[in-house]
Protein: FAD-dependent oxidoreductase domain-containing protein 1
Organism: Volvox carteri f. nagariensis
Amino acid sequence: MSWPLTWSLWEQVRATPQHRRQPLGPAFPGIVGLFAAQELLRNQLSVLLLERKGLCAGATGAGQGYLWMAHRAPGSVGWALAARSLALWRRRVQADEGLREAIEWQDCGSLLVSTGPGENTALSERQLALNAVGLKASYLDPRRLAQIEPGLVPPGGGGGLLVQSDLQINGRAAAHTLLQRCRADPGFGDLMGPEGEVLGLELSAGPSGGHVVKTSGRRIHARHALVLSAGVWTGGLLSAATGDPVWAQLLQPRRGHLLEMPRPAAMPPVTHGMMEMSYTKHYATASAPKAAAPAASSPSSSASSSSSASPREPADITFTATTGASGSLLIGSSRESGEWDTSPSPAIIAAILQRSALFLPGLKDAAAAATAAAAAVADGKPDDSAGGGALAGLSVRVGLRPYALGGLPLIGPVEGAPGLFVAAGHEGSGLCMAPGTGELLVRHIRTYMGVSGLDTASFQDLRPDVRRRAVPSMTVKA
Ligand SMILES: Cc1cc2nc3c(=O)[nH]c(=O)nc-3n(C[C@H](O)[C@H](O)[C@H](O)COP(=O)(O)OP(=O)(O)OC[C@H]3O[C@@H](n4cnc5c(N)ncnc54)[C@H](O)[C@@H]3O)c2cc1C
């Protein structure tokens, strides 16, 4: 569908009788905006989606697609949102014929992998904590681990924690499928490309919303509500609109690289999703935000990105591996705090493969080739790493995880701007948490519209102003 047609569709939507559809207003599409849009449509509210580049232009396009509970902190609000989201994902695929296949749903389970005796203890403690909240998790000693994953040889004689109910999807396929489903609804419109770029917002001071979104050619009135779900860019838009710089400081990029490559012929298949135990540090959420913590350098590794513009903390590299429905390997992943550049870094690619080869020895040749390629680039020679050999077929995705200080997303109304809502800051969990986010957001919107007063109290910690107020003063620059 070309965008002028989409625009005229929106104009028609605006003309539909008020009693049937309440025109809602713009939202942004990554996976979070798409789930919000679907939930709004389901509630008989119409939506216009605005996107300046294209579908999956943001973090959603780089996501690995694991929908997991194994690495989360039981009892935290993040756990609750993820658990609700997984229940909604499951309900969706049960209710929607064809969705399971379209999004490449795999009930493959997850394996948290330890790197030696110290982490084996942590793995056993995690098993007890997961079992205590009703999630079945089984500890596998190295011998049993080798039986179910012959290609996996954790360093230091590590074991594994198997959570069979965790699963895998293809995030890009999910976004495309959701957009198709939205477009089939007469209450939906979208503007993609330069005409969908939001250049600014004019917030109405009145009690009944009526905010204006400015694009290059139009001023779009959000009659009832405006949802900002522009991933890591949400903070800047909000700061510019409100004059409050803290929003932009609250949301920061955590750049991530994900590698996709054919499995080397001699390497056994990866049949479960895998993640090294130390990955759990990224999910040790606090309810009070703190400044972005330096990534721990041990036992996961670190690397310097050649594209980093300023001296920052080193990149955090933590091993993850999954197999896509097509059979290709997805290998991750890196985290670089405060890095906005989305060009692939040969140094980071090499560091990810080196880390992965410590767990999957079948990747040793690829790691060596990537290391040589990165060294050549550092010496000013051309990057021909994709040319063949052990790196043949390698493709790289780079995305900006929207990290909100404190490690929890912002979902709900913005105080002082009635009708303005935010859903952003899901860091490495947006694909997993998007359904619960859409549901919670729509509860807030319906309450604001006086349509219903469904409870949102359990997720009070996620309200944007709660998160904003908790930003410590040391991170706030005037
Ligand atoms: C390497 C990597 C691996 C990951 N793996 C997983 C995983 O396995 N499981 C998981 O749950 N999550 C994973 N994630 C995280 C997940 O991808 C993100 O949390 C999620 O995609 C965030 O979605 P979003 O909709 O908030 O933002 P985005 O996907 O970033 O979407 C925001 C959109 O807004 C648009 N936009 C911004 N500004 C404007 C403007 N002014 N006008 C118009 N449009 C604008 C952008 O172009 C973009 O398309 C991973 C992320 C990375 C980088």
The chain is about 30% helix and 20% strand. Residues 28, 30-33, 50-53, 57-60, 62-66, 196-198, 229-231, 233, 256, 258, 332-333, 399, 401-402, 424, 426-432 surround flavin-adenine dinucleotide (CB under 6 Å). The longest strand covers residues 251-261. Residues 107-167+253-400 form a domain with the D-Amino Acid Oxidase; Chain A, domain 2 fold (CATH 3.30.9.10).
